[in-house]
Amino acid sequence: MTIRGKYALITGGSRGIGRGIALKLAESGLNVAINYYRNEAAAKDTLAKVRALGSNGFIVQADVCHPEEISRMFRQVKDEFGALDIFVSNARTEAPTFYQPTMEITLDKWDTAVDSQAKAFLVGVREASGIMREGGRVIAITYAPGGRFGSWQPWVAMGAAKSALEVLCRYFAVALASRGITVNALSPGWIEDSVLNSLPEPVQKTIHEWHEGGWTPMGRLGTPADIGNAVTLLCSEEAGWITGQTIAVDGGASLMDGALPLEIQQSTPQRAKTAA
Q1: Is the pTM here over 0.85, yes or no?
Q2: Which DSSP string do the residues of 81-112 spell out, in sequence order?
Q3: Does domain 7-199+222-259 have CATH number 3.40.1180.10?
Q4: Which of 107, 136, 214, 252 has CB 3.0 to 4.6 Å from 267, enough for a Cys bridge?
Q5: Confidence band of 268 (pLDDT split at 50, 70, 90)
């Protein structure tokens, strides 16, 4: 793939999925701007790892909930890089700022979710387009199940905000197509070192057992590197005909039918026995 020497900005790039994306892009020879909100030490550590891989970049502090800070972030990218080729919208506000059931959610929690996702993406893509070169790539990290189902009640604000972000991908894909810029969303499954870590230990244990037991056909949770690999693929010139899509990167979890018992679908033990 031919992406060496290009310039990328990753929001929420200091930890978890964002860090996994930054390191995979760095492995491919990209220069990476790493956005963070509060954890400067984590951002500096990610930048050190980027440099250890032979690439370069810088860190930039901004709260993507505020449009004026997004604008400032892109001005710094222009000052440091001169141009931009890849914009990855990954930042997400912490769960306590939006996590509340449908019948109880306050408007401030709703606004925080929307501001950090749909509004941040709207402002971010418009800012990015001003400095993005022909053939650029815009990639949003979403969670598509949150917009399809209603059972995880405290996720209502983030589910709606992520759905709006996915819709924006389709509109931006059309708006920017004449410049060869593609716009896509990636929907990870459950990922190690992500929002999962903020959940209570018993919940984390249950999620691991659920997916390792067969609800993810590949029998494991994903890793930040898995998502970084998917981003890298979409950044290649060879992916220039893919735009306006929401792509599941979940080890097959989205293929499972929640209305059917696992034992009549597929389970990890059955797969292992067949392979043996």
Answers
A1: yes
A2: HSSEEEEEE-----GGGT---TTT--HHHHHH
A3: no
A4: 214
A5: low
